[in-house]
Amino acid sequence: MSDAIEVAGGIDPDRGSFTIALHAARDQLTQAQGVIAGTTIDLIGAIGRRVLDNLLPDRRLRVSPRVVKRAISKFQARAPNVNRRSYKATLHINILAAPGP
Questions:
Q1: How far is it, in rounded angstroms, from Cα 46 to Cα 38?
Q2: What is the pLDDT of residue 100?
Q3: What pLDDT is stored for residue 69 in this prediction?
Q4: How far apart are CA 39 and CA 4, in angstroms?
Q5: Is the dihedral of CA 32, 35, 39, 44 positive or negative?
Q6: Are the C-beta atoms of 56 and 17 separated by less than 8 Å?
Q7: pTM of the full predicted structure?
Q8: pLDDT score at 22
Q9: pLDDT tens figures, 82-95
Q10: What's the rounded Cα separation, in Å, for the pair 79 and 83?
Q11: What residues contact residue 30 under an 8 Å CB cut-off, 6+ apart?
Q12: Are 46 and 30 in contact (CB under 8 A)?
């Protein structure tokens, strides 16, 4: 799939259908096509041609940006001064030298 889309050029890789490639590979195996390979190397092949013939439509643009949803809680915070929207986190990394011989 990726070779076919790369050779075609100018096509978004998300438009290649895995299902089409899977069915093309299955059909090629069950019909025993291309058992004896020729001397020419065809990067696209039968599977790639079927993927290129049946491209998926362009993906829609995102309407909303990706965000991490805040957990919904039925309970109030324990203290009235606690802001549950965000917390400041501090991270410490200690790098230790390997012991000598």
A1: 14
A2: 80
A3: 72
A4: 19
A5: positive
A6: yes
A7: 0.52
A8: 92
A9: 665 666 778 888 88
A10: 9
A11: none
A12: no
List the structure tokens of 50: 């079927």
Give the Å distances, CA to CA, from 3 to 39, 65, 66, 80: 19, 31, 30, 59
Residue 66 C-beta-side C-alpha neighbours within 13 Å: 1
Supply the pLDDT for residue 37: 61
Token pair 């050029």: residue: 9
CA 101 – CA 89 distance, rounded (Å): 38
Helices (H), 1-101: 2-8, 18-30, 45-53
Counting as low any pLDDT under 50, the low residues of the chain are: none
State the amino acid at position 85 in one-letter form: R
Phi-psi region of 40 (alpha: psi -120 to 50; beta: other; left: phi over 0): beta
